[in-house]
Design goal:
Elements: H1 2-50, E1 63-67, H2 72-87, E2 93-97, E3 100-101, E4 106-107, H3 108-120, E5 126-128, H4 135-143, H5 146-151, E6 153-157, H6 160-171, E7 179-183, H7 191-209, H8 212-223
Parallel strand pairs: 1-2, 1-6, 2-5, 6-7
Antiparallel strand pairs: 3-4
C-alpha cells in the first residue's frame, strides 16, 4: 500500500512539473509573438513617418550632400538622385561624405564622387570629403566649413530613415548652420529590406546618443582608427 501511495505521489509531482513547464513555455511563446508583432508595427510606423523626410518638391538650389554606403544598389540610387537634381538645377553642387576606411585603405566618398562626376558630366560641381568615416564625422566636418553656412541651405541625399537621423546629428552642432532639407531616392517595398534599414537606424541612433568617448571607441573598431 505504501509503495502504491509513493508511486501515485511521484506521478502527481511529475504531472505538476510538466504542467508548470508547459505553462512557462506557453507564456514565453506568447511573449515572443507579442514582441515580434510590436517590432513589426514599430518598424512600419517608423518607415511611414520617415517618408515625410523627402522634400524633393521643395528644392531650388543649395548644396547636395550624398552619404556614402557600402551597399552598391543604395549607393547607385543615391548618386542617381543627386545627379538628377543637379541636372535639373535644383542643386548647385554635390558633396559626398563618409566612407573613409583607414584599415582597408579606402576612400569611399571619393569612389562615389567619381561615379557622380561621370554620370552627371559636371565633374567641376562634384567633390568628396575624404576624411569623414561616417554620418557623424561627415556632418561635423560639414558644420565646421564656412562655405556651408554661406550657401544658405543644404540637401541630404540618402534613404528617408537615414535623413531623419542626419538632420538630428547636424542640428546638434552649435552655430548658424545652413538650413537642411532631405531628398530620398525611390526605394523598394521589400519588407525584409525595410526591417533591416529600421534596425540599422535603431543601432545608429543608440550610437549617436552615447557619450562621445564611447562613440569614438566603437567607431574606431568598426571603421578603423584614423590615427593608426
Amino acid at each position: 500500500m505504501q509503495i502504491w501511495s509513493r508511486c501515485c505521489t511521484s506521478a502527481l509531482a511529475a504531472d505538476s512539473e510538466l504542467v508548470i513547464i508547459a505553462l512557462v513555455i506557453h507564456r514565453i511563446r506568447t511573449l515572443l509573438i507579442w514582441l515580434v508583432v510590436a517590432d513589426l508595427v514599430a518598424t512600419l510606423l517608423f518607415w511611414g513617418v520617415t517618408r515625410l523626410s523627402d522634400e524633393t518638391g521643395k528644392l531650388s538650389g543649395g548644396r547636395g550632400i550624398i552619404f556614402y554606403t557600402d551597399n552598391a544598389a543604395d549607393a547607385s540610387a543615391r548618386i542617381d538622385k543627386g545627379v538628377a537634381l543637379l541636372k535639373a538645377e535644383k542643386l548647385d553642387r554635390l558633396l559626398v561624405v563618409g566612407g573613409h576606411r583607414p584599415q582597408e585603405g579606402r576612400l569611399g566618398s571619393q569612389e562615389m564622387a567619381l561615379l557622380a562626376a561621370r554620370r552627371s558630366g559636371r565633374a567641376e560641381k562634384v567633390s568628396a570629403d575624404v576624411e569623414s568615416r561616417d554620418t557623424i564625422s561627415g556632418l561635423e566636418n560639414l558644420a565646421n566649413t564656412t562655405s556651408t553656412a554661406e550657401s544658405g541651405k543644404i540637401v541630404f541625399i540618402s534613404n528617408c530613415m537615414h535623413i531623419l537621423r542626419a538632420k538630428a546629428v547636424y542640428a546638434s552642432h552649435p552655430g548658424n548652420q545652413a538650413k537642411a532639407y532631405g531628398a530620398c531616392p525611390r526605394g523598394g517595398f521589400n519588407p525584409l529590406d525595410i526591417w533591416r534599414r529600421a534596425h540599422y537606424e535603431a543601432g545608429a541612433w543608440t550610437l549617436f546618443l552615447m557619450p562621445e568617448s564611447w562613440r569614438d571607441a566603437i567607431i574606431d573598431r568598426l571603421r578603423g582608427d584614423e590615427d593608426a
